[in-house]
TrEMBL record:
Pfam families: Peptidase_M55 (PF04951)
Species: Sporosarcina aquimarina
InterPro entries with a match to the protein in the record: DppA_N, Peptidase_M55, Peptidase_M55_sf
Superkingdom assignment: Bacteria
Lineage per the UniProt record: Bacteria, Bacillati, Bacillota, Bacilli, Bacillales
Protein name (record): M55 family metallopeptidase
Length: 274
């Protein structure tokens, strides 16, 4: 049995603000260690329950945050920024389940450092469903018939997961007070919770179904200003919905939609605000 773990950073235990998740800031090295410890807690519980292979995908920012020399020696790591499927790179039908760790709430929702991919995104819609990173990644997993078994992060991420994925196990390691403050577990207690919840999720594995996207999904990304929408609409196949900052893309499947989203958000970041 193979398990896939996508590890973001904003939802890691004890991290309240950008000084922990920006590689140029003073708290970043502390956060990398806690992030790696949490990946290890999940991997350890998986191996103890009989999982033979664990693949960990570093999924935050430049995606080179996890400390490979401190990672569980039996886990494999995907690290580095240029990945065609970004936060779910190399996830495929061979995995029995996926874990999203260190995740946060989508843009515009209560939760520590809540956002969706870039700060220029207000909402992403798959047909009529609003998704953040968590939901979009879960749809990609579902494309490969892989259920998301466990979501760990702040309470906002856990609520979002429970609303989208029936039966998913969640592990809230911190409670948001505001977008930049939290009430948090100690890392040792958080790691114990992650192990407990990973064990529970594997025991419930057959009862948790993959999240399936609609066929030929219509993806609509609402940006915060018109300049971002203009840049995103430069991608072939995209149109701006008149009178809005929403860019529409009709995809053949959720994988094409996901890759289009990556390109559109990269283009949108070219917008100048001065």
């Amino acid at each position: 049995m193979k398990l896939y773990i996508s590890v973001d950073m904003e939802g890691i235990t004890g991290l309240p603000d950008e000084s922990f998740v920006d590689s140029h800031r003073h708290n970043y090295e502390r956060a990398r260690k806690i992030m790696t410890q949490e990946a290890n807690a999940i991997a350890s519980a998986a191996f103890e329950k009989g999982v033979q292979e664990v693949l960990v995908n570093d999924s935050h920012s430049k995606m080179n945050n996890l400390l490979v020399e401190e990672l569980h020696p039996d886990a494999e790591l995907i690290t580095g920024e240029m990945k065609p499927l970004s936060m779910v790179q190399s996830l495929d039908h061979t995995f029995a389940g996926a874990v999203f760790a260190g995740y946060h709430a989508r843009a515009g929702q209560p939760g520590v450092m809540s956002h969706t991919m870039i700060f220029g995104v207000r909402n992403i819609y798959i047909n009529d469903v609003v998704v953040g990173e968590l939901g979009f990644n879960a749809y990609v997993a579902g494309h490969f018939d892989v259920p998301v078994l466990l979501v760990a992060g702040d309470d906002g991420a856990c609520r979002e997961a429970e609303a989208l994925i029936p039966g998913v196990v969640t592990a809230p390691v911190k409670q948001s007070i505001s977008r930049s403050s939290v009430k948090t577990l100690h890392p040792i207690k958080a790691q114990a919770l992650l192990k407990e919840k990973m064990t529970e999720a594997l025991e419930k594995r057959t009862a948790i179904k993959p999240l399936k996207a609609p066929e030929n999904p219509v993806m609509r990304i609402e940006f915060t200003n018109y300049g971002e929408a203009e840049w995103a609409a430069m991608m072939p196949g995209c149109v701006i919905e008149e009178g809005t900052t929403i860019v529409r893309f009709e995809a053949k499947d959720i994988i094409e939609a996901y890759r289009a989203m990556l390109v559109m958000t990269e283009l949108a970041m070219q917008t100048k605000f001065c």
